[in-house]
């Protein structure tokens, strides 16, 4: 297609306009679907951009071709979806393009061009302690869009700023870019620098790492390698699409055949240092979002429950473990409510712990 009078193709002008709107409205995501106007996801939900024309398959493919590698665009029609990272002036993007019954769709997430600073994320201070550990496994869990990648990036940035450590990240795709500061950082992308998470992690163990970030533990091989890395003196961070510490640990154990689960529980009890489960809640003024967290700090009692296959009892230890830095969703939501930062009703609906929050709010 021809360039417009400003020297930009109309497709790129549209993309830059949408990027500008994302910035202005603090939108987290942009959604394009064939035959529909663009939508932005803000704190208020999905907002249609009704002043714009519906997008076509051809327009979306031109936009994709301008942002991601040609082989990924070709892969779309073969596999049905592609993931990639991309860059616009002052903004990084995480892109997922996929085919569905209505045709082509593209979801674009806005990522700040600089790594997040932990102190600016409103996370419980105990979470930062995990970045100071010499070794072990730390899991960040939560649903899609709950800020897991942002939390991990802030911990990597803290380590990079304060420790003379070799940090290797394995991501799909690379999101936040980290420049060497006090530490040394190497970022690898699945599908571009290595075939999959497991092979990249296996290779990383031969690259003299101190700290490893594994974007997601999707299969038993990756889990086994992450546990082995933590056992052999590395600090390993990873994520799971689960809710709550108990659910995350059960997911790990249940991923294995029944005959292997006892061994996995022992490995997990020895290597696990903490689990942070998080969701994002709308702030009371409706202008932003704040994380609500459950934090498990692993101690001897937690290790015993993991080994003895009593993971379902872990929430009880979290409830009574405040002195060690543990935090339940109910306690954190009650705290955010008392500080006037959230509307309680939204928090209760999000985690389904209304009675516990009420107990904490009204306790004498």
- Average pLDDT, all residues: 91
Please tell me the total number of domains. Answer: 2
Give the helices and strands as they follow along the chain.
HEEEHHEEEHEHEEHEHEHHEEHHHHH
Work out the radius of gyration: 22 Å
Q: Beta-strand percentage?
A: 15-25%
Reported CATH architecture of the largest domain:
3-Layer(aba) Sandwich
In which range does the helix fraction lie? 25-40%
Layout of helices and strands:
Layout: H1 10-25, E1 29-33, E2 39-42, E3 45-48, H2 57-67, H3 70-79, E4 81-88, E5 91-100, E6 103-112, H4 126-129, E7 136-141, H5 148-162, E8 166-171, E9 184-189, H6 197-204, E10 211-214, H7 220-231, E11 235-240, H8 245-254, H9 261-271, E12 272-282, E13 289-297, H10 300-307, H11 314-320, H12 329-338, H13 344-351, H14 354-362
Parallel strand pairs: 7-11, 7-12, 8-9, 8-10, 10-11
Antiparallel strand pairs: 1-2, 1-6, 2-3, 4-5, 5-6, 12-13
Helix pairs in contact: 6-7, 7-9, 8-9, 9-10, 12-13, 12-14
Provide a short characterization of the protein structure.
This protein has helices at residues 10-25, 57-67, 70-79, 126-129, 148-162, 197-204, 220-231, 245-254, 261-271, 300-307, 314-320, 329-338, 344-351, 354-362; strands at 29-33, 39-42, 45-48, 81-88, 91-100, 103-112, 136-141, 166-171, 184-189, 211-214, 235-240, 272-282, 289-297.
